[in-house]
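To the team - 2'-deoxyadenosine-5'-diphosphate complex, inputs and output below.
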Amino acid sequence: MTQDTLVLIKPDGVARNLIGVILARIEAKGYVIVDLRMLTPDRALLGAHYAEHLGKPFFDPLLDFMSSGPVVAARVRGHRVIEGFRALAGATDPTTAAPGSIRGDLGRDWGERVQKNLVHGSDSPASAERELGLWFGGTV
Ligand code: DAT
Ligand code: MG
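Output:
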């Protein structure tokens, strides 16, 4: 059950100089970073990545936020890493994300229309395959 997942360090994480801290948590857990890139994503890539959220009130703010600066994209590998990184990241809402998680320890609510919660992690094997294709496969 060795898997690959897509991890993104979002523009807030990069702007707050947390790239190293976040990658270190992934490595310290024992997962392996097998590919890494830094880019400022365009709205075509982000619209495909977040297609499930089209029409929701936070969709446009989410795309504005995610295209506002550089992000780090990582292909991360390990046994059950999809589930494991979601646990490392913590809940979507950084106010209630468990202490000990990336979002719980390093994130907070800034009172904006989109939650800036530092990281993205694929939520299923199908999502991981699709998202890794988008960010590393050059399909957008
Ligand atoms: P996750 O990133 O935990 O998988 P998601 O896929 O439901 O969460 O949403 C994608 C991102 O959109 C999330 O990381 C932050 C933002 N978001 C989600 N729900 C939100 C809400 N109710 N209000 C503001 N931003 C939200
Ligand atoms: Mg999600």
